[in-house]
Amino acid sequence: MVRRRSMRNDRADEAKLKNGRDGREGMCTDYEFYQSNPMFFTRDVSQLNMVGQYRGGSIFLISNGPSFGELDHSLLRKPGIVTFGINNGPASFRPNFWTCVDDPSRFLKSIWLDPYITKFIPMSLFERTFFDNDEWKMTNNKVGDCPNVIGYRRNEKFVANRFLKEDTINWGNHSEFGGGRTVLLAALRICFLLGFRKVYLLGVDMKMTEESTYHFDEQRSKGAVKGNMNTYKRIKDEYMPELKPVFEKEGFKVFNCNPDSGLTCFPMVSYDDAVRETTAMLGDVENERTWGMYNKPEEKGKWAVEPPDEEKTNTVRKKRTAVKEGIETKEQVSASNNMSTSMVQEVIERAKQKEFAEQNASIKPLRQEEPSIEQILRGAKIAGGDVRIVKIQNVDNENNDDNVDGDNDFPEDRNQTVGVTVAIEEEFDEDIDENMCIDDEPDDDPDDD
User: Is domain 25-280 annotated with CATH 3.30.420?
Assistant: First the structure.
C-alpha cells in the first residue's frame, strides 16, 4: 500500500521537527545519555530511539530473590510507579519493562505474548523460538513475531568507567575475562538509557540455597546454586562497588529496598518510603480536581475556588462520592447526595412534559397534590450518582397511605409507569432517553474520551 502525503500538517509540529529544541541551536549527540550510536532496534534492525523517554523518572527494578515475594505488590500498581522485571519474575508480578540475556526457551510463554510488557532482548534472540509451558513443548513461534519486543546489542568485558558510555550494553565478563555475567547489569544500563535517574532495587537478595531459590516456583541443582553464588559474589564485591562512583557522578541514584540483602554498597531505603517518594509528585490522584480544567487559561482564575456540588450542573461528582462512600440504602442517598430542590424539580418537569406526555398521557397521576422530594428520593433506585427518570415497578406507601384515593389510582398492570421519580444510576439502560439527564450540555472537547 502506498503511503500518502498528509493533506495538512500541524504547523507547530512541523516547526519543531525542522528546528529541534531551539531554532537557533544545533542538536548535540553527545549529551547526558551518550547516545552517539543507536541503542535499540526492531527485528529488521531499524533504529528505535527510546533514549531519554523517561527523563528524570524513578523505576523499581525487580530481581528474583525470595524477599520480593514477601512484599505488598499492590503498591507497585499505584499511579506513577514504573517497574522493570527480569527472567521469569513476571510469574509473580507483571512489570512494565522486562529483559533477559539467555535463550527464550527458558522464559514463560505469557511474557513473550503479552503486549503490555515492553521486552528488551539481545538482537540474536529475535529469530529463536520459545517454549510453551502450558502444553509443555517447543513451539514454532519466533520471538520476533511477538508484540512489543525491542532488541539491543551486548558486550562481554566489564569496565566500570565505560559502562554508561559504551555503544553496546554490558552484562559482565566472558569466561576469557574471569566470567560472571548477569542480567542485572543489562537491566541497569537500559534503565539509564531510558532516562530513569532513580532505581529502587527489589528482591536483590544475593543469596541462594537449594531450598530457597526465587520468589516464584523453581528448583535449582546444587551446581546451579554454586554458579549463582559465584556470580553474586562478583556482583557484590566487584561490579557494583566499582559502578557506584560512576553512577553518582552521572546523577544515577540506586537504592536497595531489602535490608537483608547481601548487596550493601547502595543506600538502603524502605519499600514503603520508596513508593511514597515516587508517587508524591502526582498528588492525591484519587481525589484530584478536574472541575474547571477545560476553561481557557485566562479564564481559570475566576474558578480558583471549586464551587460546592449543589451549585454544579453535572452529576459526576455526586456519583463518585456515592460510590466511594458505599451508599446502599435509599435513605442514605437522600441524606448524602445533596441534590438541590431545583435539580429535582427540573427532572420532574422534564418528565411531565416529555416522557410521560408522549408515552403515558392516559395514565392518572398518583394524586393531584405534588409528592414531596423526600418521597421521590425514597422511591428511587440507587446504584451510583447520575440523576434520571425511571419507571416505578411498585410504590412504597409506607406511612403514606393518604397519598392514594383508592385502587382506581393504579392501572391494572402495576408495572406500568404511574408517577415520577428520581433514580441514582451508575449506567444508562437502553430504554431510557439519555437526553433526560440533567447535564445535557456538550463537552468542550468532543474528542476527549
Answer: no
Q: What is the greatest pairwise CA distance in the chain? A: 100
Whether residue 117 contacts residue 111, with contact meaning beta carbons closer than 8 Å, is answered with yes
Alpha helix positions (H), 5-158: 11-19, 109-113
> Which pLDDT score, from 0 to 100, does residue 345 have?
58
C-alpha cell at 408: 382506581
Q: What whole-number distance in Å separates Cα of residue 48 and Cα of residue 118?
A: 13
Give the integer Cα–Cα distance in Å for 378 and 424.
11
> What is the full DSSP assignment across 345-401?
HHHHHHIIIIIHHHH-TTSPPS-SSPPPHHHHHHT--BSSSEEE----SS---TT-G
Q: What is the predicted pLDDT for the residue at 205?
A: 97
Classify each residue of 311-346 as buried b or exposed e, where b means 16 or more C-beta atoms within 10 Å of its C-beta.
ebeebebbbeebeeeebeebeebbeebebeeebbee
b/e burial code for range 21-49 (CB count within 10 A of at least 16 → b): eeeeeeeeeeeebbbeeebbbebeeeeee
pLDDT, mean of residues 398-425: 41
Distances from the Cα of 104 to the Cα of 99, 134, 220, 225, angstroms = 11, 15, 18, 21
Regarding beta strands 137-142 and 149-152, do their DSSP bridges make them parallel or antiparallel, or are they unpaired? unpaired
Closest alpha carbon to 207 in 264, 155, 168: 264
- How many CB atoms lie under 10 A from the CB of residue 112? 24
Q: Any idea where the domains of the chain sit in the sequence?
A: 25-280, 309-436
Going 367 to 365 to 384 to 321, the CA torsion angle's sign is: negative
Nearest C-alpha neighbor of 132 from the set 93, 95, 104, 101: 104
| Chain centroid, CA 76 distance in Å | 10
Residue range 43-72: mean pLDDT, rounded: 95
Please name the amino acid found at residue 20: G
The stretch 60-68 carries a mean pLDDT of 97
For β-strands 97-99 and 169-170, DSSP reports them as unpaired
Work out whether the CA dihedral 184, 188, 190, 196 comes out positive or negative. Answer: positive
Average pLDDT over residues 347-371: 54
Is residue 94 pLDDT above 60, yes or no?
Answer: yes
245: left (phi over 0), alpha (psi -120 to 50) or beta: alpha
Mean pLDDT of the chain: 77
Distance CA 408, CA 367 (A): 11
Rounded average pLDDT over 400-405: 40
Nine cell digits for residue 348: 420532574
Please give the angle made by the CA atoms of 192, 59 and 48, to the nearest 5 degrees: 45
Q: Quick one: CA dihedral 104, 110, 113, 115, positive or negative?
A: negative
pLDDT of residue 163: 94
Cell match 566487584: residue? 238
